[in-house]
Specification:
By secondary structure, the chain is α/β, with parallel strands linked by helices. The chain folds into two domains: about 150 residues, Sandwich (Jelly Rolls); about 180 residues, Rossmann fold, CATH 3.40.50. It contains seven helices and 14 strands. A five-stranded antiparallel beta sheet has the order 5-4-7-2-9, with helices on one face. Strand 13, helix 6 and strand 14 form a beta-alpha-beta unit.
């Protein structure tokens, strides 16, 4: 057996965390600022402690990449999340043509302290990597280990981030691993960091959340609340939510996205009627905004987001990996249009 190689460890607390909108958070790797705790529900604030969408980019010439990380929560018994989704890290590598490839994942992570090799057996060459943090848990510490004598440095992407607000689907339930929820897929495809502000069961277009988002100066706002918001909330809150963002950021593009079909909606008349009612109300507000002279507002319909073969969900509601890939594919042209990418 070959002797173990000596590793040098880099604490990611010393690096800028991409996908993190606010610096003054209660935990190093949580998403919402401490300042908002008094203005939003306890549930929302607690969900903001998840490090969903947070990631770093780096370059190293090491032939092995290791990680060790400590978590603040136990893996919930009976969860439909995979342990990799809930607790794991997800590594991607950039090829010479500029395409990201999956490279390795922290798997079977069911304890609070883990050390794993994410990638090994590659040639010694400087390569760029992207490491996604867990979708649900919150690490207290994350380190990357590379071979002694090899270099490692952080890379910070130049494009300003996308702010993506939404439901448990945006929050990553139930992708098999962190890099496979659609905001993370779009982040790789577009080369834009994404600030993932998905909140399971809690995207209800509260004006307090819109006010909070105006503290950020993104390249794009994305609003995707229909799977959580009631018809009444859609009618009463959507226009105000958009107007708050637009007043603070008059030139920032906004994309409004409808909900994807529940996979059994085609045989459940009440479910399909609910889809149609909320979408009609949402689209009516979009049309009103356009007629009032608002510019740079885009719209994505939901009925074809995951296709029509019903093979795209874990539970009829939340996408599996196929569903997330199809959603990202369907959304990509509008994101490019809003960002002025050819």
């Amino acid at each position: 057996m070959a002797p173990k190689k000596k590793l040098n460890w880099t604490n990611l607390a010393d690096w800028k965390t991409e996908g993190k909108g606010w610096d003054k958070t209660e935990l190093r790797y949580s998403r919402l600022p401490k300042s908002c705790k008094k203005n939003i529900s306890e549930k929302l604030y607690d969900l903001g402690a998840n490090c969903t969408g947070l990631h770093v980019c780096f370059e190293t010439d090491s032939t092995e990449i290791h990680a060790r990380w400590k978590l603040t929560m136990d893996f919930p018994e009976g969860s439909e999340h995979t342990s990799c989704n809930y607790n794991g890290l997800d590594l991607y590598v950039l090829d010479d043509a500029g395409k990201w490839h999956w490279a390795g994942t922290g798997r079977q992570v069911k304890t609070k302290s883990m050390t794993q090799q994410l990638l090994g057996g590659i040639s010694k060459k400087k390569r760029k990597y992207m490491l996604f943090f867990p979708l649900r848990n919150t690490p207290s510490k994350i380190e990357i280990g590379v071979e002694d004598g090899c270099t490692i440095k952080q890379i910070v992407r130049k494009n300003p981030p996308i702010v993506y607000y939404g439901t448990s689907i945006v929050h990553g339930a139930y992708a098999s691993r962190p890099g496979l929820c659609h905001p993370s897929i779009l982040s790789r495809w577009l080369d834009y960091p994404v600030i993932n502000l998905g909140f399971s069961g809690s995207a209800r277009l509260e004006p307090e959340m819109a006010e909070l988002f105006t503290e950020l100066d993104p390249s794009l706002y994305v609003i995707d609340p229909l799977a959580n918001a009631t018809l009444e909330e859609v009618v009463e809150r959507t226009e105000n939510f958009v107007r708050i963002l637009r007043k603070a950021r008059p030139k920032t593009p906004i994309i409004m996205i409808e909900d994807a079909n529940l996979t059994t909606a085609w045989i459940k008349p009440d479910v399909m009627a609910n889809h149609k009612a909320k979408r009609a109300a949402y689209n009516k507000i979009y049309q009103k905004l356009i007629r009032s002279g608002e510019k740079e507002i885009y719209y994505i319909k939901g009925d074809k987001l995951v296709g029509t073969d019903d093979e795209t969900s874990v539970d009829g509601v939340h996408p599996n990996d196929i569903g997330y890939f199809r959603m990202a594919t369907a959304m990509l042209p509008t994101f490019k249009k809003a960002l002025k990418i050819k």
